[in-house]
Amino acid sequence: MDLTENKPLPQAEHAEIRIVSATPEAARAVADVIRRRFAGAEQRSYPVSGGGTRLHLTVDTETAAGPTRTWLATSRPPAGTGPHTEEP
Questions:
Q1: Which of 23, 48, 58, 78 is most buried (CB neighbours < 10 A)?
Q2: What are the domain boundaries of the chain?
């Protein structure tokens, strides 16, 4: 099922990235590489049936990443944000 068909596109300077992995550590490792290049606006993590992890990132493609932050600091959403409408 493709959830993107009826979903509005992100702002022009942003990209939404979905990472699905068997372990949270693997998802965080991939997210860390992405955050080294792009400034991150949001990060949300959800369990996947069968024990996996689904990690959603929203990155600003026009802004270079700032100083490296821990995964815990980047996993906390900015004030006033929440899950996307199609997410739990």
A1: 58
A2: 14-75
Q: pLDDT tens for residues 36-66?
A: 888 876 778 889 888 899 999 888 888 877 7
Q: Is the dihedral of CA 55, 59, 64, 67 positive or negative?
A: negative
CA distances from 39 to 4, 9, 17 (A): 23, 19, 13
Q: Can you tell me the distance from the alpha carbon of 81 to that of 14, in angstroms, rounded to the nearest whole number?
A: 15
Whether the Cβ atoms of residue 64 and residue 39 lie closer than 8 Å to each other? yes
Of 54 and 80, the one with more pLDDT? 54
Chain CA centroid to CA 22, Å: 16
Token readout for 47 is 């369990």
